[in-house]
């Protein structure tokens, strides 16, 4: 079973954002943060009360801490990418891991922001921007990555009433970290990012809940390894009616990944895949495909790490698929909302939780049960005024950023009071004034407990 850590809001069981705080369904990746917390306001007031008693070396120490954080991420990148299945990093959520989850989530957000849904546009169902300008146009500035390839998927689904052309839709991109980012990240990172479901054929493909053998490795078809047929269709279908048509999503991806691995051969590398909803399914299929074909294998017991950061992702395959992914060393970190129904599909009834009776007797249909892969980080948010927010990527990232902000506020607040107490008590000790020392200690304790 997948590991699981629940991360609810500290003060309530369900995080209830107002309509103005949480983006609507398919909000094209907008991130809306809630107002500053009471803890942050208290910290601000407390800082002004004790500022005169704190030595001016605090800012210097914070700068050193920031510098150490950067170098530490470069040293522990393998742990952050899941080499130890994130043991000790999810409970509580390590700041470096949180930082990377948010960063990969924002790469997915760029897919939504750049996807052209205007039927009158020349770029309809493709990316609005060129590869060189994508990150700048969506407001990411320079994240330290260069986009090398746009990826298209052709849904093999016919809808008689649809007005959309039967062609490939832009679903994501491949990017590689720059030389400057290599120093910061500790390795050359190849990132493949997929958006979630938007068009009608994609929604239809999502509901094709039947398991079919993946058979991605022709040398060993492994008929027991099965995946959801709709996702597999999106991954492998091409425009076969036209000899000059688009190759399958799979062919595009494997070709580009192979090219980049050859280009940066000899460097420290990682392959990071991220996606939301349907996109997380494509990311997991690609990760399995890369590992099954051995594209990431450099030698005996020497593999390039393949890691999936999944946001609101459904189940993709059966138990054999899960076990094979684990055997191949594919690492999957699933960020889910406990109120998100998509994360419970497919296999609402036939899944990893219902294949064994009493923990001992395995049902005959266990081989047909869907199973989640990897380690799960469970968030908890819901909005009565906008129920669709439970699956929105913006809501996921907002909560992660909000908790990061709250954790830092509490940490800074604790550090400020500790330094204030030490400074005041030191001055009182030097002047040998016992009453002043007791009063100062009581005053600081009073504010700290507010």
Automatic annotation (TrEMBL):
<comment type="similarity">
    <text>Belongs to the AB hydrolase superfamily. Lipase family.</text>
</comment>
<dbReference type="InterPro" id="IPR002921">
    <property type="entry name" value="Fungal_lipase-type"/>
</dbReference>
<dbReference type="GO" id="GO:0009507">
    <property type="term" value="C:chloroplast"/>
</dbReference>
<keyword id="KW-0442">Lipid degradation</keyword>
<dbReference type="Pfam" id="PF01764">
    <property type="entry name" value="Lipase_3"/>
</dbReference>
<keyword id="KW-0378">Hydrolase</keyword>
<keyword id="KW-0150">Chloroplast</keyword>
<keyword id="KW-0934">Plastid</keyword>
<keyword id="KW-0443">Lipid metabolism</keyword>
<dbReference type="GO" id="GO:0047714">
    <property type="term" value="F:galactolipase activity"/>
</dbReference>
<dbReference type="GO" id="GO:0008970">
    <property type="term" value="F:phospholipase A1 activity"/>
</dbReference>
<keyword id="KW-0809">Transit peptide</keyword>
<feature type="domain" description="Fungal lipase-type">
    <location>
        <begin position="191"/>
        <end position="348"/>
    </location>
</feature>
<protein>
    <recommendedName>
        <fullName>Fungal lipase-type domain-containing protein</fullName>
    </recommendedName>
</protein>
<dbReference type="GO" id="GO:0009695">
    <property type="term" value="P:jasmonic acid biosynthetic process"/>
</dbReference>
<dbReference type="GO" id="GO:0016042">
    <property type="term" value="P:lipid catabolic process"/>
</dbReference>
């Amino acid at each position: 079973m997948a590991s699981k850590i629940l991360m609810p809001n500290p003060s309530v069981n369900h995080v209830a954002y107002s309509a103005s705080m949480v983006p609507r369904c398919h909000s094209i990746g907008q991130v809306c943060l809630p107002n500053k917390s009471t803890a942050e306001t208290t910290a601000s007031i407390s800082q002004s009360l004790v500022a005169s008693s704190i030595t001016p070396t605090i800012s210097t120490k914070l700068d050193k801490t920031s510098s150490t954080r950067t170098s530490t991420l470069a040293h522990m990148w393998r742990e952050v990418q899941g080499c130890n299945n994130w043991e000790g990093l999810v409970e509580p959520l390590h700041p470096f891991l949180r930082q990377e989850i948010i960063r990969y989530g924002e790469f997915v957000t760029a897919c939504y922001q750049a996807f052209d849904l205007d039927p009158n546009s020349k770029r309809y169902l493709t990316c609005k921007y060129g590869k060189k300008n994508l990150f700048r146009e969506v407001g990411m500035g320079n994240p330290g990555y260069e986009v090398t390839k746009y990826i298209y998927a052709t849904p093999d689904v016919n809808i008689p009433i649809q007005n959309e052309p039967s062609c490939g839709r832009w679903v994501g991109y491949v990017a590689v970290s720059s030389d400057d980012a290599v120093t910061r990240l500790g390795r050359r990172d190849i990132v493949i990012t997929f958006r979630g479901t938007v068009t009608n054929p994609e929604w239809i493909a999502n509901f094709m809940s039947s398991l079919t053998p993946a058979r991605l490795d022709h040398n060993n078809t492994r008929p027991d390894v099965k995946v959801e047929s709709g996702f597999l269709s999106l991954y492998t279908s091409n425009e076969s009616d036209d000899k000059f048509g688009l190759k399958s999503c799979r062919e595009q991806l494997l070709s580009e990944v192979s090219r980049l691995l050859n280009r940066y051969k000899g460097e420290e590398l990682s392959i990071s895949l991220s996606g939301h909803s349907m996109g997380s399914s494509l990311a997991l299929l690609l990760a399995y495909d890369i590992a099954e074909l051995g594209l990431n294998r450099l030698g005996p017991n020497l593999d390039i790490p393949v890691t999936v950061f999944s946001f609101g992702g459904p189940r993709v395959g059966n138990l054999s698929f899960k076990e094979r992914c684990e055997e191949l060393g594919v690492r999957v970190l699933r960020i889910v909302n406990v109120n998100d129904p998509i994360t419970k599909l497919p296999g609402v009834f036939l899944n990893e939780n219902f294949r064994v009776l009493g923990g001992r007797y395995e049902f005959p249909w266990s081989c047909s049960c869907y199973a989640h892969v990897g380690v799960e980080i469970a968030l908890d948010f819901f909005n009565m005024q906008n129920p669709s927010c439970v699956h929105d990527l913006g809501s996921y990232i907002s909560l992660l950023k909000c908790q990061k902000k709250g954790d830092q506020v509490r940490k800074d607040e604790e550090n400020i009071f500790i330094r204030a107490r030490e400074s005041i008590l030191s001055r009182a000790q030097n002047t040998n004034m016992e009453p002043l020392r007791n009063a100062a200690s009581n005053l600081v304790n009073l504010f700290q407990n507010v």
